[in-house]
Amino acid sequence: MSSQHRTGSRKLKGVAVSGLTLASALLMTGCSDQAEVGFLPTKRGVTDNADTIMSLWIGSWVAALVIGLITWGLMLWCIIAYRRRKNETGYPRQLSYHAPLEILYTIIPVVLIVSLFSFSDRAERDITAPKADEAAVTVEVYGKQWAWDFNYLKGGEVPQDVHFSGNQAHLTGEEGVEETLPTLYLPTNSTVDLQLKSRDVIHSFWVPAFLEKRDTIPGRTNHMYFTTGSEEATYAGKCAELCGEYHSEMLFNVKVVSPEEFKKHMGELQPGRLGDEYNRNPNMNTTK
Fold first, then answer.
1. Residue 9: pLDDT over 60
2. What is the spatial distance between Cα 201 and Cα 239, in angstroms, rounded to a whole number?
3. Beta bridge partners of 214
């Protein structure tokens, strides 16, 4: 066997070993718990929307990885198969046009973009659509500098209007401070309608484990519709819109509890509703 063939064989073996190493690493990574949820800060079953977003996220990355591997493989094949051989001179034969290949290169990206758009649009419609004509729990969530008010409105699992008025968190670094944060209670396996509003400036209601957030805009009501999971848990939330000096302390908790504990908590809250009369933005609640 000539030295040229031996060198080519060694290069091909090197490429094959590198490819196997990469594939093995990807397979090993795919076995981890984090990889199963796409390295997102949540897990399956937190809310139905979180599962929808997670499936779209993982599916998009899998499609991108498959396309990337095919593209990289073709590039490596071209580099190796059409490399300049020893003692070769001049340019290789040039091809100006190849109509079928160019049509293929146009059709494939269009199909990929349309497919990704279709899946994304369907997921967005599922997330933003109301879950039912009447939610089991409807909560008015008011963002304010720098805390949260929660009005649990009568209907479904809530026998009468009750409210919770939150105070600004003071992060001293001591243990147990998280327990003093404003806490939104929700029952398990229940459809929820969060009506998001603001008393002053733009805030943003964000629970990382839910994989979605909505802005609270003065004079406007945004909604988050979802169904809670079957597991009782506490999730950390925060304002995700820079809203002033103590934005970093505008924290809250979401506690998903059993229906019995939820009803008990409703009985412990103050009756009535804290409405727009407590808004601080002078440009709100005015008519021309």
1. no
2. 12
3. 205
Query: Would you tell me how many other CB atoms lie within 10 Å of the CB of residue 166?
Result: 21
Determine phi and psi for 155, rounding to 5 degrees.
135, 145
Asked if residues 211 and 193 have their Cβ atoms less than 8 Å apart, the reply is no
pLDDT of 130-147, one tens digit each? 876 778 999 999 999 999
pLDDT at 23 over 60: no
* Chain segment 187-244, per-residue pLDDT in tens: 999 999 999 999 999 999 999 999 999 999 999 999 999 999 999 999 999 999 999 9
Alpha-carbon span 127 to 161, nearest angstrom: 27
Distance, in Å, from the CA atom of 105 to the CA atom of 77, rounded to the nearest integer, reads 18
What count of residues does the chain have? 288
SS3 label, residue 165: strand
Distance of alpha carbon 145 from alpha carbon 202, whole angstroms: 10
Q: Could you say which architecture CATH assigns to the domain 137-278? A: Sandwich (2.60)
Long-range contacts from 232-237, C-beta under 8 angstroms, 24+ separation: 232/188, 232/256, 232/257, 232/258, 233/46, 235/46, 235/207, 235/208, 235/209, 235/210, 236/178, 236/207, 236/208, 236/209, 237/184, 237/205, 237/206, 237/207, 237/208
Is pLDDT of 103 > 50?
A: yes
Q: Is the model's pLDDT at 26 over the cut of 70?
A: no
What is the DSSP code (8-state) at residue 180?
G
Domain ranges of the chain: 32-86+93-128, 137-278
Q: Please determine, for residue 6, whether its predicted confidence score (pLDDT) is greater than 60.
A: no
